[in-house]
Amino acid sequence: MAPGTLMLDLQDEVLLQEEVAMVQHPAVGGVILFGRNYRNPEQVMKLVASLRQLRSDLIIAVDQEGGRVQRFREGLVELPSLGSLGDLWQQSPFEAEEAAYSLGWLMATEILALGLDISFAPVLDLNPGVSEIIGRRAVHHEPAVTVAVLSAYIRGMHAAGMAATGKHFPGHGSVALDSHWALPVDNRSMQEIEAYDLQPFVALMDQLQGIMPAHVVYREVAPDPAGFSAFWLQEVLRRRLGFGGLIFSDDLSMQGAASQGSFSERAYAALSAGCDMVLVCNQPDGAREVLEALSKLTWSPQAWRHAALRGKAHAVWGEHQQLPAYAQAVSWAQRLRGL
Question: pTM for the full model?
Answer without folding.
Answer: 0.96
